Target: Cytochrome P450
Amino acid sequence: MTDDVLDIPFPDAFSFDPSPTWARLREQAPAVRVRTLAGALVWLVTRYEDVKLVLADPRFSRAAVVAEGAPRVGVSRPLPGTLPTTDPPEHTRLRKLVSGAFSHRRVEATRPWVRRLCEELADDVVDGADLRRVFALPLPIQVICTLLGVPYEDRERFRDWVELSYSLEVSQRPRVEAAMASLKEYMGALVAGKRAAGRSDDVLDELCATPLTHDELVAFALNLLVAGHETSANQITSFVATLLRDRRHWERLVAEPGLVPSAVEELMRFTRLSEVGQLRVALEDVEVAGVVVRAGEGVMASIGSANRDPRAFPAPDELDLGRAPNQHLALGTGPHFCLGAQLARVELQEALGVLLRRFPDLRPARPVEELAWRRVLVSGLAELPIALG
Ligand code: HEM
Model:
């Protein structure tokens, strides 16, 4: 089986159910060759320990992912010189400059404001509404725009560009490249204006005062804008749909709201967010999962599969809202561990908390299994129409 090349995403991707392909690979071929939609041949690892190794080991590079001729997963090439596309020591330098703005303490201070925002958005959650459109999407966009100091009124200008940057459709490449150019132009002008104004109201103002160059700052701002958008929006939608799919979970949380923080961790573990994997390029020959990944070869770490590995989680396909311990990899591990982890946790906990309190009788308007998935790099339900009462 190791000699076979499989096409990724797999045919059983984009679904609520556990992937039989992931389960089979974990047992029979924990390192396998796969072909991405962009036509690249790379390794895929699926077991928890191997995924952890690939994510954290410095012999697997992120900087090499943006080098000329490197294997591609999606359509857009990630911007060079940002946190996800640098290796230590350059990565360490950049991360030190920005980590204060996303520290646990700084993010916790935004919690009351995030809660108020959830309450305001919940006013639009009416019978028949699409929860993704009226609540799950505006929340993280408003949060990241406010934190960064990007005018929320401009969202129509960058929404399509951001969405396209997640596309897996190779035929979309010219549109995606044009979108990236526009997005860079937009952010370049915004950053230049902020530098000239010399204020200290938000994270971008703060970053203007660091030794980051103009180009580094623009790339970083775009990275945050995109990273802070779709991930949390997809997660909020999928979390609610998962809890409503078996109503007992929703009802348990309505009755025990103190369980929300641990439920959020379990839902992060359980929810399928990426059907491909996090890409690295080996800098030297490395043995992993019984194969030798040669220097220059790409390897993808399937976080979704690792989070369902029975070697790491008892009864992995069961949703256990009180699961402890829960060392899931949904936010990554090692030097590239999600910079926005605490922000994501605050958004997800507050969003669920407010929805559970305001709408204990929330129901999906249609069976959630019938709803379409967005077939993109960071995936989730395309819509979640809801019914009240
Ligand atoms: C539920 C929501 C989120 C999930 C599941 C998530 C997941 C992840 C994962 C798995 C990684 C590591 C990728 C790798 O190792 O290749 C990562 C990195 C990152 N995330 Fe998040 N993320 C979320 C929300 C956010 C938010 C709200 C922000 C905005 C501040 C953010 C900013 C970043 C950045 C900048 C990195 C790169 C860090 C580095 O390379 O040092 N994320 N995220």
Observations:
- The chain is about 45% helix and 10% strand.
- The pocket of protoporphyrin IX containing FE is lined by residues 55, 83-84, 95, 102, 223-224, 227-228, 231-232, 235, 273, 278, 303, 330-332, 336, 338-340, 343-344 (CB under 6 Å).
